[in-house]
Design a protein that fits this description.
Structural class of chain B: mainly alpha
Strand content of chain B: under 5%
Strand content of chain A: 25-35%
Structural class of chain A: alpha/beta
Number of helices of chain A: 10
Distance between the termini of chain A: 36 Å
Radius of gyration of chain A: 17 Å
Radius of gyration of chain B: 19 Å
Largest sheet of chain B: none
Oligomer: heterodimer
Largest interface: A-B, 27 and 20 residues
Largest sheet of chain A: 6 strands, mixed
Number of strands of chain A: 10
Order of helices and strands of chain B: HHHHHHHHHHHHH
Shape of chain B: globular
Shape of chain A: globular
Chain lengths: ~230, ~325
């Protein structure tokens, strides 16, 4: 297991957002965490990458408990987080954004070419200010930037947010490619269909607790899940 | 490259020195005074630009750091001057750098609340700090209290002030172009994303405050050794606001913008003296018009040379 979360609880002030949650991600997997608005998906990702402190529980990454490690140090251990709404640096150029991705290590000559071959659009726009990119391009940039820290595990928070179905599809295909080339992926999504199609396994989250955990195939065919998240009656 | 750089440095020093010589010989003291004050304004604006423009924090207490630099250096060259060395150019230079270091320490202390506070709230804390500093100096009788501190050796002339303008500009430009600088910018852009990239945002906020207040302290030291007299009223809240206007006017995060902001805010009130009592009506009016025409400041986030490059290519 590259990541195992045990009995994680997170509170915002007095209000519990996540209760006693446990989940695991194995090396090489793509795992989807799906759930409605306000279920606590983003909170879980933030607790894993250290951006918020959990109230209790443990987060073991690569054999070490990181529940109380600062976020900028967790990045150095090989986890990178693509934040909700992409979090690009809007006033910096595409190129400068990518350089920030490699902040924790020395950028090697071929690194940027690798990213540009994954998303040729970014190469065309490397001198452009990132805030002027389209939503899809910004998502490509956010993913590329996260890749440049050479993560073992990549956390993605709603990559489909605000994107046209066509673009969503191509982004998800790229995520699948990234996974196949050796990066483990933990994906948080509202778009359950798209997420489960590329994931090996999935967890279904409801108001801070996991209600289903199974292989993606089984979740896609599960009647309760279908009814609640896949828009079938 | 090293040789080339030192050659340029020697050339700059030579040019500044000769201009200084010519100025003192040929131009009346009032004009020299305005030119030197522009230089001090530039240093102040460039230093505040690092905190307000680049790191995205909001400091309203820059006059406080200036006061720390001014009083520390002036105390060394007057009250504490143990030997005639402290009246020489080199001695005064050392005193001014010491003032900068003292201001940097103060910047560290003020930077600490910036880790927990944002925007308006941070502005209020820094404002309070600036006032506290001023009132402390107002109550230390050994540095003159409300009467001020006279007899400071007037060693900071055009040459020394503009040498510091060049040093400040080069130092901040190099800082901003390094990975340190990009990390500072990323804190302004998006704190969560910066942390997710591995940037220690607390560290960089503090770095921005410390470096910025060092140069503000230098500006204060130069100011003291140019005026040869300082009192707590030289560092009132208005002075901090003036620095903020310089930065906003030039464009937040633009180093060359800060230089222009420093010149405009210092020079305009002098040029407007012909309008006599309407001067302080026309000055703000011009500021308002400038902001309406260029809402992002003169150069926005960019540097002046980037603007021209863009025009040339499009």
């Amino acid at each position: 297991m590259i990541l195992s979360v045990k009995n994680l609880s997170v509170n915002y002030g007095l209000i519990p957002a996540v209760r006693n949650l446990s989940m695991e991600v194995a090396v090489g997997e793509t795992v989807a965490l799906i759930g409605a608005n306000g279920a606590g998906k983003t909170t879980i990702l933030r607790a894993i990458s250290g951006l918020i402190k959990p109230a209790s529980g443990s987060v073991v990454f690569d054999g070490q408990d990181i529940a109380n490690v600062k976020p900028h140090l967790i990045v150095r251990r090989g986890m990178s987080h693509v934040p909700e709404r992409r979090g690009i640096f809007a006033n910096l150029t595409v190129y400068e954004n990518l350089l920030m991705g490699a902040y924790t290590r020395k950028l090697l000559p071929g690194d940027l070419d690798e990213v540009y071959s994954l998303f040729p659009r970014l190469a065309e726009r490397k001198k452009q200010v990132a805030g002027t990119l389209s939503g899809g391009e910004q998502q490509m940039l956010a993913i590329s930037r996260a890749l440049l820290s050479r993560p073992k595990l990549m956390l993605l928070d709603e990559p489909s947010l605000g994107l046209a179905p066509q673009i969503t599809k191509s982004i998800f295909e790229t995520i699948q490619r990234i996974n196949k080339s050796g990066t483990t992926v933990l994906l948080v999504e509202q778009n359950a269909q798209a997420a489960l199609k590329i994931a090996h396994r999935g967890y279904v989250l409801e108001v801070g607790e996991i209600t289903f955990a199974d292989s993606s195939q089984k979740l896609l065919n599960n009647d309760a899940v279908k009814k609640a998240y896949l828009g079938e009656h | 490259m090293k040789v080339f750089q030192s050659a340029i440095l020697i050339a700059v020093v030579g040019i500044l020195y000769s201009v200084n010589y010519l100025l003192e010989d040929m131009v009346n003291p009032y004009v020299i005074r305005v030119i030197v004050n522009c230089g001090i304004g530039m240093i102040l604006a460039m230093s505040l630009n690092l905190v307000n423009g680049c790191a995205g924090q909001f400091s309203l207490g820059h006059a406080g750091f200036m006061a720390v630099g001014a009083y520390t250096s002036a105390t060394l060259t007057t009250v504490l001057a143990l030997s005639p060395f402290f009246k020489t150019d080199v001695g005064v230079g050392c005193a001014i750098v010491t003032g900068g270091v003292a201001a940097a320490l103060a910047g560290y202390l003020v930077g600490l609340p910036s880790l927990r506070l944002k925007g308006d709230y941070l502005a209020i804390v820094t404002l309070g700090f600036g006032e506290i500093i001023r009132i402390i100096f107002l109550n230390i009788e050994d540095v003159g209290g409300a009467r001020g501190l006279p007899g400071i050796p007037p060693r900071a002339n055009f040459f020394w002030v503009y040498l510091w303008v060049v040093i400040t500009f080069m130092a901040l430009l190099r800082l901003l172009r390094s990975s340190y600088g990009r990390a500072i910018l990323s804190v302004r852009e998006n704190e969560i994303a910066a942390e997710s990239m591995g940037v220690d945002i607390s560290k960089y906020k503090i770095v921005a405050f410390v470096v910025s207040s060092f140069f503000a302290g230098i500006a204060g030291g130069l100011f003291a050794h140019f005026q040869s007299f300082i009192d707590p009223n030289s560092f009132v809240f208005n002075k901090s606001v003036e620095a903020v206007i310089m930065v906003v006017m030039g464009g937040m995060g633009s180093l060359s913008g800060a230089i222009f902001g420093g010149i405009i805010v210092t020079l305009l009130p002098e040029l407007l003296r012909v309008f006599e009592q309407y001067r302080m009506v026309i000055f703000p009016l011009i500021l308002i018009i400038l902001m309406l025409v260029r809402p992002m400041g003169l150069f926005g986030h960019k540097e002046i040379w980037e603007l021209f490059k863009k025009k040339a290519s499009s």
